[in-house]
Structures are given as structure tokens and as C-alpha cells.
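Hi everyone, sorry if this is the wrong subforum. Our group has a chain we'd like a structural model of before ordering constructs, and none of us has done structure prediction before. Sequence below.
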Amino acid sequence: MKQSIAILTGGGPAPGMNTVVASVAKTFLKKGYRVIGLHEGYTGLFSKNPRTEDIDFTLADDMFNRGGSHLKMSRFKPTDSNFANDFNLDFFIDNNIKLLVTVGGDDTASTANRIAKFLADNKHKVANIHVPKTIDNDLPLPAGSPTFGYQSAKNQGTIIGRTVYCDARTSENWFIVAAMGRSAGHLAFGIGTACHYPMIVIPEMFNKTEITVDKIVSLVVSAIVKRKIMGMNYGAAIISEGVFHELSDAEIKKSGVNFTYDDHGHPELGKVSKAHVFNEMVENKLTELGVKVKSRPVEIGYEVRCHTPIASDLVYCTHLGMGVYTLFSQGITGCMVYVNAEGDVSPLYLKDLQDEKTGKIAPRLVDINSTKVNSVIDNILSFITEEDYAAAKAFVANPEALDFKKILNW
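Answer:
Right subforum, don't worry. Here is the predicted structure as C-alpha cells:
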């Protein structure tokens, strides 16, 4: 029987997923392998009747530059009981599968690590290689290398963000923009920097103080008042949805949001318009302070996940796909594929990245102390400082409460 590989996509989509799958497929097909696509993420590996599709060269060529994921995705997270009772080893045996390729983010990577360990513990000779993706850019890749999909999502988010900013200038309104980013603020900070937004709020900024609803709102109002001092009655603030993850239960209740949770225990932020929530809280604060400003909410999330990948991701994902074969041909398994700026391929072993106690891979956060980040904060953002107190009193009674560095305890 011809040797085969299986490939699946897990979690949420990111630009470039089809490029990775197609590049893996084209490379292995040329080496004489059969390529089996698994729909619905990990579900098929724990089902007697997995939903599969053979990927030939024509299908791979048709999908490689498209947005979204041809292989249907799932956030299914197998339990220990699933591993003990439901793991479909027959699927691997009956199809002579030698390699399982998983494409996904931190949760998909963590499950891939469990599968690699399970296969090794049970002496099943099936290699496993993971391809890291997420528009959140929060997987710990070396030398600041981006996760695939991030650059394309940031590019499309910037197109939306700068259009919003043009509207703000034109109508003399403020826009409160919420951006995806479950654990880290890379996407929000990247878009906000590209668009020269006067305020960016990400969870990493609260490194010296607890995140609260009032502090988030006060940072935005600080920018609004500073702009008024400057004679500018418009602007935009972008807030990473990840701040919700850091809020206490009492603070979440204060925000008025009731979350449901996914299989991984994460709040299902996609079901709630964070921009609407943030905008309403800002409006309430402005009314309380007697500051007259019109503001509108804008969400940036699902709008960028399935966007057509830009050139950098098309090239990057192609090299990642080919890199899977490079590692496999060297007998390497239980790792993520890493490709540096020169195109050199090397393994990142999941066991070296995971937390010893939880087995999960810790997210890569924005380095809030870096020169790159602080130059944006110091030169692009607008906010109240001690020097503004006298001028700010024309708009608010207590400008000290809106002092950017005092809010953050910097």
C-alpha cells in the first residue's frame, strides 16, 4: 500500500492555512505519498468514521492562494478519556499513515503534543509535525518571527482601521475599535501603530497594576481630552479583546457582559461585540465627566481571519509547508516546524515549549518594555501628563485621574 500522510487544521482560521496545506500536499505528492485531508480538526482522530478527503495536486493548486481553510476546522479538545477509549489507530493503520501534520495555534499545538506523546508511549510509529498559525502572533517562535497569518490579518485590519480614522477626521467623531487577541495584544498594537491611533490599550500595558474596567475607559478618555487640548475633536482608540481575559469576575460583571466558554475554557469573545461594550462604557464615562464627544464602535476580528493572504504570508507558508517534509525526511517528530528569515528549517520541540505542570504552551506577549513599543507610546499616542493638568481643567475637574502613567502605575 502507498505510504500516506494526514493533515488537519484546528482552532480558528488564519490567512495562509490553505497555502500551508497545499504546499505540504504538493511536496509530499511529488515524493510519491498519498495525502489525506481530515475535516473537523481533531474530531476525526477520535471517531470511527472520520470525514476525510484525498488532496491531489489539482486540488492543492486550486486552494493554495485562497483565504479561509478548505479543510473544515474545529476547536474539539480531546479528553484523557477520549485518548484512552476513542483514539482511531485503525485510521492510521488502514491508510498506512506515516505522518500526521497539524496546523493551528497554541491549543492545537498543545493537543498535538499530547498526541505525539500518546503515540510514543504506545509505540506507534507515526510522526507528528505541527505548523504554528494564529493571527494573534502569540506563539513563542524564535527571534520574534511572526506566526503565519498575523501579517495578513494586520494588513487587512489596518485597511479597516485607517478607513475608520479617515471617517473620524471627516465627521469629527471618535471610534472605539476592538481587535482580536485572546492572550496578547500584538494585533491591536500593530494595527494601532500602523494607523497612528492616539490610544492603544493592550493587556501587557497593565504590567504594574490590575486591569479594571475603569482603567481601560480612563485611558481612552485621557486620549480624548488630550486631543481636545490640542484642538482636535476626533480620533480613534483600539483595544485588544485580551483585556477581558485579565479582568476579575467582579470586573467582568461590572462590564455587563455574560460570557459562554469554549472547549478549552476560554471566554467565547467572538459572541460578544467588545467594541459595543467598550464604546458604551466610554460614553457613560464621558457623560459622567460632562465631556461632549460622539463615539462609535467598530469590531475587527472575523473580518480578518479568512482574508486572502498577502505576499509575505504566501511565501512564508509555502516554506513552512515544504519545511514539514524536510523535518520528516530527517526522522524528526513531535515538534513545530520553524523557518527563519533565510529559509533554514529547524524543529521546535513542543516538550521544550510547554509548561511542565499544565502541558500548555505559554503565549508570547508583547514586550511592553521594548524600545519598539515605547517609541510608539511616547511619540504616537496622545494622553494626559502632569504638564497637561492646567489645560485639561477646561474640560474635566480632575485631570490627574486621566494621567496615563498614573493609571498604569508606570
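For your construct planning: The chain has two domains: 4-148+309-353, 157-305+380-408. The mean pLDDT is 91.
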